[in-house]
Amino acid sequence: MTAAVDIAAIERATAEAVSPQRVTEVDGWLVARDPGTIGRAHSAAPLRHDLDAGGIPRIEDLYREAGLSPVFRVADVGGLAAVHAVLAERGYRPEQPTLVKTGGISAMIAKARGAPAPVAPSPGASWAEVFTAEGFDPVDGASRVQALTRAPDALYAAVEEGGVALGVGMMAFGEGWASVHGMRTRADRRGEGFAGRVLAGLAGAAQARGVEPVFLQVEEGNPARRLYRAFGFTPAWRYFYWRRRA
Fold it and tell me: Both 67 and 162 in a single domain?
């Protein structure tokens, strides 16, 4: 388990990276409210893993005031058992299991293979086009581009051929951490090592800044977990999105 101070830092850094329209701290929770499709930008997450359920009604009110459905992003740990129980009583159900994985920039660089992807302080049009390319939901892709490109401190990597981006990713910086987001490869070019080159490029840029700790979040069923494991990432905790279904 990651130290309690790191839980709060990781959650705050996550919110900075996905840049929701509104973020409020309520009774030990970080409440992100955004109408886009990124779950982390539209969910409430505890800043500690030993929290009671007292803040849940107020959080629900904040979402309703914003015209949004309440969503809770809660770690699957014993210290939050009371939260799990109250959410279940109120009609929420856990879904979309996701891992928070932490690592080190030095380890990423040591594991890298192939030419690192070029990194820039802002994304080009080709970077953004990967998210709406064939095989991806264009509405979701556009929402992710909008969120990730308004992060306050971020770098963008892309492997290109002929001016066309084939694999892309983004690294945000906040709370003493680097974090990896927006990893995406064109559907017809997967398996060619572009994602590894993107990670290598981002890691090199983070090292140049003197940042060492790094984290990412990946759905439990995503085959990219193998790549992240190869780059030295290990699980810190697992969480579920708790949502009400009609």
Answer: no
Write phi, then psi, for 2 (nearest 5 degrees).
-70, 145
Share of the chain above pLDDT 90, in %: 96
Are 221 and 174 contained in the same domain? Answer: yes
81 and 124 assigned to the same domain: no
Give the ranges where the chain is alpha helix by DSSP (H): 4-18, 56-65, 81-89, 105-111, 125-129, 138-148, 194-209, 225-230
pLDDT at 1 over 70: no
CATH of the domain at 121: 3.40.630.30
Tell me the C-alpha distance between 86 and 92, whole Å. Answer: 9
Instruction: Look up residue 225 and give its two tokens.
Output: 């977990």
Assess whether 114 and 138 both reside in one domain: yes
pLDDT score at 67: 96
Of the candidates 99, 93, 169, 82, which has an alpha carbon nearest to the alpha carbon of residue 128?
A: 169
Residues 6 or more apart whose CB falls under 8 angstroms from that of 135 comprise 186, 187, 188
* Nearest residue to 57 (alpha-carbon basis) of 22, 20, 89: 89
* Mean per-residue pLDDT, 202-228: 96
pLDDT tens digits, one per residue of 136-158: 999 999 999 999 999 999 999 99
Asked if residue 143 and residue 64 are part of one domain, the reply reads: no
Q: Are residues 157 and 48 in the same domain?
A: no
Q: What is the pTM of this model?
A: 0.95
